[in-house]
Amino acid sequence: MKKGKSTDIQILYPINYWESKLNINFETEFIRYKRLCAKLTKKERRKLDGAYYITYSDWKHRIITFVTMLDQSELDEFRHYLTGCANRSNILNTITFGSLFPFLVSFLLPYVNNFMSTLFGPKFSGFILFCSFVCGLYCFYDFIVDAKNDLLWGNFYNDIIYIIENFQKSSEV
Asked: CA 127: distance to chain centroid?
């Protein structure tokens, strides 16, 4: 093992620190949160195993039980970590969905069509263009689903931040 490798892992994957500290699985908690906001996939429903919340206030009380385990400095650090995660999610969503994907599709589709026409001949160019278009639509759909999921992750982090800030205000009084 190289020197400093364990600290590199903690820097790359700090969520494991907070998951172990709070004894929480963020992915499962996100699925519970997503059930309150959006429709779940079959795979996500299987992960819940029937443990879910009907109202936002029930989920909020669960988060508060985890937040009470932290002292004030850890609470601030956790809030800063969540703010970074929310910002990272929003920035990636805006950059990729807003400008990068349409540019790539409009830029690459003619080149793919020309390459496939030279490879298979001009009589298949209409079919190849149609297949390229269908593949592009599928990628676009998949990209929209991922962007929506990233947006929900950002909302998840922002809601936990909101809960922490309200908890800190109420504990100060």
From this structure: 36
